[in-house]
Specification:
The chain has about 500 residues and is of the alpha/beta class. Helices cover about 25% and strands about 20% of the residues. It folds into three domains: about 150 residues, Immunoglobulin-like (Sandwich), CATH 2.60.40; about 170 residues, Rossmann fold; about 100 residues, no CATH class. The strands form five sheets. It has an eight-stranded mixed beta sheet with strand order 11-12-14-13-17-18-21-22, with helices on both faces. Strands 2, 3, 5, 6, 7, 8 and 10 form a seven-stranded antiparallel beta sheet that branches. A three-stranded mixed beta sheet has the order 4-1-9, with no helix packed on it. The protein starts with a helix and ends with a helix.
């Protein structure tokens, strides 16, 4: 048998694992406690074999079909909470609840109604208590009452060094025609004295996909970092942890036609507010940006697109700066995202030994099951967020998809419209105007076995930057053999960056 035929046979054989119809669920009934409210949103029923996790918190956690906890979903509109029969229109990785394997499952229902944040565990969302069910032993009817509610947002308590803020954005609220808030946490230097006139350089830290501003709390428990931070020889720096959440998933901190003017909101609202109440030396030579994965792309993009605003970007495992390598897809030349020109299924993730984990088609199918209307572009997940950041809005304000979610066929007109976000082309086209402000400000770290095939895109940018003259780019690329996505450790990701930053800021 030829290799291609073997690959297709194996793919089909693997999927047979999910086709066995063992469950005998004759109905799923869901209701809400009676009140005067009507609800519109996406209604989920989630299953998991993991007894330590609430099923609702496993939705979308894994795109590999064999490892994913099954969930099913349908949209509801103006639901008054009276008992309804749950009839899902989408599911992942199974198409039908009756394909569930026999056994003991944890199951839970969730109603996502929060339109400000894409996270399913967001304030106002309703859910049932988890319950254990035996699937396959006898016909069964599942019943859920959404008695629980995610509490309204409250900021963590401030500490002596770590502060939390939340402000209403006028720019974003105007864009969405409802209240939208910006959030951040601020880590102060250990030698800062309240009331002092001392001002410090600032490092804006951007998280991976949909990372929250509260991640700064993890550093307090990082013994290696805190030993460095509290040492009297450590140069003083303020670290600002930005929030990734938005209605369409991660905002990427950009001005987007779909997800709104997040860059403007930062530059004109959040950053000035922070400089007013915290000891930030808010001048270009003292502003820096860093992050990994999504944060790697954002830090790179902010430095490239606003070269005089920042004095350095430290970019780790960034999303691809070139759409010639949108993971493994060349959106300008390929006809299909799911299959290569040779007809091979395109993976979206791999182990560091090269073994594929799941395909692009798998991941899109998962996101489509999560997104309202069954559309992946509004899922708030990775491919959806990219479409929202780079895309143009349709007549409902949602992003026009870069490709057909069923077939993977690429829309060449949409691909052409994305070119303005291709940072590799942007550098080529604009070096004469940005080069003087950008030279020497870009530093990168990338594993040569990045788990999401991001290595190729950064190689393209490296080639482009190495060709620039008058001035030369003087960008630094650190390629880590046999290394995957992020995971560079405290020493590299924080301590080395902060020491270099201090030198550049003249501390």
């Amino acid at each position: 048998m030829h290799f291609f035929a073997k690959a297709i046979a194996l793919y089909c054989a693997c999927n047979l694992f999910f086709q066995a119809a063992n469950a005998d669920i004759t109905g799923i009934h869901i209701s809400l406690p009676k009140d005067e409210t009507s609800y519109s949103g996406r209604l989920f029923v989630a299953f998991t074999l993991d007894t330590d996790s609430e099923p609702r918190l496993t939705i979308g956690d894994e795109a590999a079909p064999r490892n994913a906890s099954p969930f099913f979903a349908v949209d509801v509109a103006n639901w008054d909470g009276t008992l309804i029969e749950f009839q899902p229109t989408a599911g992942f990785p199974l198409d039908s609840i009756n394909q569930l394997e026999e056994g003991s499952w944890q199951v839970q229902a969730l109603l996502d109604v929060n339109v400000e944040l894409s996270d399913l565990d967001s304030p106002g969302n309703r859910f049932s208590l988890p319950q254990k069910v035996m699937i396959g032993s006898s016909p069964s009817v599942l019943r859920f009452e959404l008695t629980e509610k995610v509490e309204e947002e409250s900021l963590p308590d401030d500490t002596e060094l770590l502060k939390f803020i939340r402000i209403r954005s006028e720019l974003l609220s105007q864009f969405y025609e409802r209240d939208i808030f910006l959030r951040a946490s601020v880590l102060l230097p250990s030698d800062y004295v309240e009331g002092s006139n001392t001002r410090y350089p600032v490092l804006y830290h951007v998280a991976g996909l949909n990372g929250r501003f509260t991640r700064s709390q993890n550093l307090i428990d990082d013994e290696e970092f805190m030993q460095y931070w509290l040492d009297e020889s450590t140069p003083g720096v303020v670290i600002v942890f930005l929030d990734g959440e938005s209605p369409y998933g991660d905002s990427y901190q950009m001005n987007s036609a779909v997800s709104g003017p997040y860059a403007d909101a930062n530059f004109h609202e959040l950053f000035p507010y922070l400089a007013e109440i915290f000891p930030i030396n808010d001048i270009p030579s003292n502003r820096f940006v860093t992050g990994c994965s999504t944060g790697g792309w954002v830090s790179m993009a902010l430095q490239i697109l606003y070269p005089s605003y920042f004095n350095g970007a430290y970019s780790f495992s960034p999303d691809s700066p070139s759409f010639r390598a949108y993971q493994l897809v060349n959106i300008y030349e390929d006809e299909n995202a799911y299959y290569s020109a040779r007809g091979m299924i395109r993976p979206s993730a791999r182990e560091t030994n090269g073994d594929p984990r799941f395909s692009i088609a798998d991941e899109i199918r998962m996101e489509a099951a999560m997104g309202s209307g069954g559309s992946y572009v509004v899922s708030g997940q990775q491919w959806g967020a990219w479409n929202a950041v780079y895309g143009q809005p349709d007549d409902r304000g949602n992003p026009i998809p870069i490709w057909n979610q069923r077939s993977g066929e690429i829309n060449s007109l949409v691909a052409d419209s994305w070119r303005v976000w291709d940072l590799d082309f942007y550098v080529r086209d604009n070096w004469s105007s940005i080069g003087a402000d950008l030279s020497g400000k870009l530093q990168f770290w990338m594993g040569d076995m990045d788990n999401f095939y991001l290595t190729n895109g950064l190689r393209f940018l490296e080639e482009t930057l190495n060709l620039q003259e008058a001035p030369s780019a003087n960008a630094k690329f650190n390629w880590i053999p046999y290394h995957g996505h992020c995971g560079f450790g405290t020493q590299v990701h924080y301590i080395d960056v902060l020491n270099d930053l201090a030198d550049r800021a003249g501390r």
